[in-house]
UniProtKB/TrEMBL annotation:
Name this protein carries in UniProt: Membrane protein
Top-level taxonomic group: Bacteria
Organism: Streptomyces showdoensis
Keyword Glycoprotein belongs to the record: no
Entry's transmembrane regions: 7-26, 32-53, 65-90, 118-136, 157-176, 196-215, 240-257, 269-293, 314-332, 338-356
Amino acid sequence: MVLKTFGWSFAITVLGLAAAVVYGGWEAFGVVAILCVLEISLSFDNAVVNAGILKKMNAFWQKIFLTIGVLIAVFGMRLVFPVVIVAVSAKIGPIEAVNLALNDADRYQELVTDAHPSIAAFGGMFLLMIFLDFIFEDRDIQWLRWIERPLAKLGKVDMLSVCIALIILLITAMTFATQAHQHGGAHVDKAQTVLISGIAGLITYLVVGGLSGYFENKLEEEEEREHEAEEAAKRSGKKVSAVQLAGKAAFFMFLYLEVLDASFSFDGVIGAFAITNDIVLMALGLGVGAMYVRSLTVYLVREGTLDDYVYLEHGAHYAIGALAVVLMVTIQYEIPEIVTGGIGVALIGLSFWSSVRRNKALAAAGGESDSSDDKTGVPSGV
């Protein structure tokens, strides 16, 4: 079952890592491996959410999502989107950006370095909003209770996450401008770039979230209409066109899933810039990682159950928060790639270990439900 589901992912992993060694040696191998782990860890909750929706769709629409959806997710968001970011930030054409990445690495690196403040500000704000909206939400299951409980209470204040994100952006831009002034004012314009790019990242997050919410509402409306139509048909003795209703509902499911998947993929793509600026390594690592996410979605659907490691979602979002901070800091200071990638892997590993401890404690206590987890003394985290 595992080999059948993950077979293509395993094969692409071998090809991707081999291509990395040929392209840049063992250092490139390590970067691609880190990016792959990063993409999988940040998108794990994406696979869980996708599986929960995908299992409601018929076989035809499942195949559409896992074929056309893969093309959109892997080649569109993970491969094309990084090129677009560099092209827009450096004010060059996408084809020129690809040509530079492949044929003139020094010039490409120079353009990316010049564009890094805007990329970091945009990505940092987007990732920060994902983390803040997660941490301010009241949840039945909490990992680090001493942090999450008080923050969940604060989260009842409307637009708190937006206010905090804007404050952090202003502090970052002002700090950048102050340090630039102390060095002769050569980079004052970049402070304005940081501010504008950060606001653009915030707006992008709000737009993507709004679209996801829109399609989710449409999905709920279609499901309600389908249920009402079936009830009316039963009362009147008429037959219902199940294919039409299922297709209509599945169509909105597909649209919702694609928007949702795009919103999840932003963190992996943008977070990759904190690991490397090399577009080839980025494409290899994120492409391999995205394949595993899709395989994991299929595996969860075929098994009929969602994953039992409930704290992995928490660990992934803490990793997103750490990446947001790293990106904002790298506007002015250089941070080694191994440190950036190591933080995310460590947080995911810790959340996995906490989940294992929780499962063992629940089993020892007689299998209390999740709702009683935070009330019975069963460990809810570390």
